[in-house]
Amino acid sequence: MSFFPDEMPRPEPDRDDQGFWEACAQRRLCFQACGACGALRHPPRPICYRCHSVETKWVEAPSPAVVYTFCVVHHPNHPAVASRVPYVVGVVEFPSLPGVRLVTNITDIAHSAVRIGMPVSIWWDDIGGGMFVPRFRPAAPSDA
Amino acid sequence: MSVARQEPCIVGVGQSEFTRWGGIQDRSQFQITAEAICAALRDAGLSASDVDGFASFSNDANEGPLMQVALGVPVIRWSSMVWGGGGGGSIAALAQACAAVEAGHANVVVVYRGLCQGQGRRFGRFSTGRTQGNFVNPFGLFAPPQMLALLVRRFMHLYPITEEHLSEVVLNARANANRNPRAVMYARTLSREQYFQARWIAEPLRLYDCCLETDGACAVVVTTRERANDLSAQAVDILAVAHGSGPDWGTGPLGSHNMPDDDYASTNSKRFTRDLFARAGVSPREIDVAQIYDHFSGLTLMALEDYGFCGRGESGDFISRGRIRWPDGELPLNTSGGQLSEAYVHGMNLLIEGVRQLRGESTSQVPNARTCLVTGGLGVSPTSGTILGRRQ
Ligand SMILES: [Zn+2]
């Protein structure tokens, strides 16, 4: 069972972001970086904002991440989430990867207990068809 | 001075009726937009044959080339659309009109927006084709209330901003709407208790922290001071207008939230606000009344900071003790009821209210108002703002 029902919109990889989703399919969270100067960027895009190189590489994100901000969604504005509300959408960042943040979900915690700055660990949600989506839950003390 | 005679001013405003979304069913969105433009031209004492430019924003479906045909405008010399969704471009479209008339590309430019959420899509719902949809949709981040709740949460984490402060923005707007017969919420009062008892949309935003979803259209007519002097309509001067964006906001709140850290809990306006006031020749303290975009209450607070009315994190304290309340506050805010309680026409109704204030025609009139700040949408890219004035 995935976190959201099957009717949930799925990633539809395009030319610019397919590398991100290919890594996800292997349960690896990788951010795009410039192949020439190494500058990190997200979301994926075809040219480096710093040196304009079009060479790219992928950098795997370490765990745990840290909650940068979050909201608790109560009003279902898509039919797929009607049975799932309330749920937490979080923005997480990785202290060793400056400049990139990821929109995700914070799960396995009462929504009133989520805090900005809390460490969270990745888990891979199997949404079928060979695709996995990264979500996060509170980090076990041994992870943090 | 010949230069001054080319300075831009607003000589006419027009609008359709405002209703809840789906309230306008007897006429198309295009028709009510055309009617709003005709009303603005009548207000200015001009006719369609005087118009030689159109400017709009937010991918307005009521395209200028079609409007030219519909209204029988013989020659167009200026036709422009500001990039970006939402209301961020409302005042940027005004800026295009100003640029056109100041430089002499055109002489009478109509800025307009028609938006019937009952005929197109509701902006509070999931939509396909969203920029960076892959990085928000699979996580249930579907629509602006949730997307901007993320900024408001961080804003309230970093600074002493409370739910009470959010409620003051909301209750002020409703009190103003209750004096404005045009407002969708004219006849519906809102108490502090009702505000706090309302359901959550996306914490920390409750139902009344989110703007209305409505049907309506607005238009304003921009020309030069020289032309305005030949018209009987009361002209309002555009003292300064600006728009722009900082880095990484184009994929920001409505996308993957990778804006700079020192900029995250903000409206993406602070890079041009200092210039805006400098060019207008006034300071924030000299603003008599303000119409600040209020799609979500927390962003209106951030804008008070980004426009320099108070320091970073001080907006909650700033609005306490009645400062934004009509008639006695130092800075009456959103005097038509704004987008929380009048209508949501992507900010164009705020611009019309700014003109009403300087003409002395508001239902919450600030006595002898001489300067009014009007902003476009906040927290998107680009954002925009103007300072309107009454010089004589
Ligand atoms: Zn590079």
CATH topology of the domain at 8-122 and 216-223 in chain B: Peroxisomal Thiolase, Chain A, domain 1
- Counted up, domains of chain A total 2
Low-confidence runs of chain A (pLDDT<50, min 5 residues)? none
The first-to-last residue Cα distance of chain B is 16 Å
Query: How many DSSP-defined strands of chain A?
Result: 8
Count of discrete alpha- or pi-helical segments spanning 4 or more residues of chain B: 14
Largest sheet of chain B: 10 strands, mixed
Largest interface: A-B, 41 and 36 residues
CATH architecture of the domain at 8-122 and 216-223 in chain B: 3-Layer(aba) Sandwich
- Label the overall shape of chain A: globular
Count the strands of chain B? 12
Please outline the major beta sheet of chain A: 5 strands, antiparallel
Strand percentage of chain B:
15-25%
Can you give the helix content of chain A as a percent range? under 10%
Average pLDDT of chain A: 95
Strands side by side in the biggest sheet of chain A? 6-5-4-7-8
Mean pLDDT of chain B: 96
C-alpha Rg of chain A (nearest Å): 16 Å
In brief, what are we looking at here?
Chain A is mainly beta.
In words, what does this structure look like?
The complex is a heterodimer of chains A (144) and B (392). Chain A is mainly beta and 144 residues long. Chain A has two domains: 47 residues, no CATH class; 83 residues. Chain A contains one helix and eight strands; from the N terminus they run αββββββββ. In chain A, the strands form two sheets. Chain A has a five-stranded antiparallel sheet, with helices on one face. Chain A has a three-stranded antiparallel sheet with strand order 2-1-3, covered by helices on one side. The radius of gyration of chain B is 19 Å and the shape is globular. Chain B is an alpha+beta fold. Chain B has a domain of 123 residues: Thiolase/Chalcone synthase (Peroxisomal Thiolase, Chain A, domain 1). In chain B, the strands form two sheets. In chain B, strands 1, 2, 3, 4, 5, 8, 9, 10, 11 and 12 form a ten-stranded mixed sheet that branches. The interface between A and B is large, with 41 and 36 residues. The structure holds zinc ion (ZN). Zinc ion binds next to loops of chain A.
